[in-house]
TrEMBL record, chain A:
SUPFAM superfamilies: ABC transporter involved in vitamin B12 uptake, BtuC (SSF81345). It holds the Pfam family ABC-3. The lineage of its organism: Archaea, Methanobacteriati, Methanobacteriota, Stenosarchaea group, Halobacteria. This is Metal ABC transporter permease. GO terms for biological process: transmembrane transport.
Automatic annotation (TrEMBL), chain B:
The lineage of its organism: Archaea, Methanobacteriati, Methanobacteriota, Stenosarchaea group, Halobacteria. PANTHER family: IRON TRANSPORT SYSTEM ATP-BINDING PROTEIN HI_0361-RELATED, METAL TRANSPORT SYSTEM ATP-BINDING PROTEIN TM_0124-RELATED. The keyword Transferase does not apply. This is Cobalamin import ATP-binding protein BtuD. Keywords: ATP-binding, Nucleotide-binding, Transport.
Amino acid sequence: MTMLASSAPRLTAIPLSTTDRIASAVIDGLWGTLVGALGELTGIGVLGLPFMQRAYLAAICVAVIGPLVGSFLVHREMAMIGDTLAHSAFAGVAAGLFVNTVFAVTVPPLLAALVVAAVAAVAVQTLIDYAGTYRDASLAIVLTGSFAVGSVLITATDGGIAVGINAYLFGSLATVSRANAALLVALTLVVVTAVAVAYRPLLYTTFDEVGARAAGLPVARYNRLLAVLTAVVVVGAMQIMGVILVAGMLVVPVAATTPVTGFKRSLLAAVAVGQLATIGGVTLAYQYDVAAGGTIILVAITTYLAVTIGSRLRHRRVAGDTSAEN
Amino acid sequence: MAVLTAENVTFAYAETPVVDGVSLTVEAGAFLGLVGPNGSGKSTLLELLIGLRRPDSGTVELFGESATSFDDGERIGYVPQDVATANGEMPVTVAEAVRMGRYPHRWYGRFDDADRAAITDALDRVGIADLADRRVGRLSGGQRQRVFIARALAAGADLLALDEPTVGVDADSREAFYDLLHELNDEGLTIILIEHDIGVVTTHASEIACLNRELFFHGDPETFVETDALADAYGGSQHVIAHDH
């Protein structure tokens, strides 16, 4: 526990007594007791470990919000915006750590990441809307620009913060501190509520943007909302997924469930595939002591391949049956 | 009553003027065919007329309000240009797409009986009730057009704006589609339609507007075919698509 706390000390260091107590009650009290009891019931020992309890909680949250927001991105052909915002979140983490080291003030790196990624999200959307730049060029500019800022900031402190940055780059189960888990739960509630409230505008805009404008919808506003939600998801999921792999949770489960007919059904199916990938990935990562983010993505891609090949074969058989009837 | 009034509307992309000094009135119940050569500004004019673009100068009024600040979105049904040919991998079903017609009435909250009835009626009216659970992206071009018409009907639109809706649709479906538009127009729906096929549009529309940056003609189809407006707009040398019916 001491070892774990030291790997992500800055958030826990903020004196937020009431928030801390709520986080402790929810994460340790409610969730910990629940999962611990489940562990005893099933005899799965790993469920009794507090840091694994938090890792599973994070896994579940990530697999809800990633595919939820990703469903709207993928069908607008904006799958790569997640990757861009993850890299800008990385710049935010670097900026947070830099400020902490140089000015000796306490800025939680994840908060810095959230702010920078949200600003980058609005910047990307504005570039796309007004600058007339190609969409993927806009994304590439913001992606590399952010990563450039991050890498410069890291090296500007003589490598002092390079150690801390590693956990954010590749993700880690151990970085999910109690405070980070509480933050992720809060972000999940925000994202789920926002998507539930804005579901119809987001769906209409994704399906037919011009039609949505003709129907009187302020489309630009909802595009910015979606970009900011993406930033929130990326920052929330970054802890276990890592900057480089976080975009996968926005895209792979959605791609896997595109054969499902009906947008709402495919969205729910994507969340289910996400759960399979994250819970399976976290378990395997712990079992074999390998990177959680990478394992999660590999499970997700395996599912994607299985579903895609399966649905192709099924279509071929259906097509074969129909032609045999005629 | 005028559904739509454009006065001296001008619009340019950067330095290139696309629509120049167009004045046009569309009365309720009209079936207006908008024709003109490629690149003549038809699509831009249609977008200006329904408030998707702001004119550089001049005014457009929709149902008596400024088109750019018009917010009764449900009164306008818009069928985009590439609807029949766009590759739709998005898993939206026909029912989901038609439900979108009710969204401008209810962006949040549960649909009530009136909403559900409007959706069912719209699906029945255009004859796609049996396709309700199919994916829009897996339908033929002709079926997809009907989905978008049904969406407009579910909205209770008073004005239907279609941008070259029959591109990529086979001849039989196209005839059936124009028959449907005819019926809807007879029932009181105002229609503005961009169509590159002059023969089709002069057969079906009740009035023609011929555009090549400027408005060359606006009147009934019979007069249109007798005047030189077509040749003037097309510059005389361009190949004109026309059919005998």
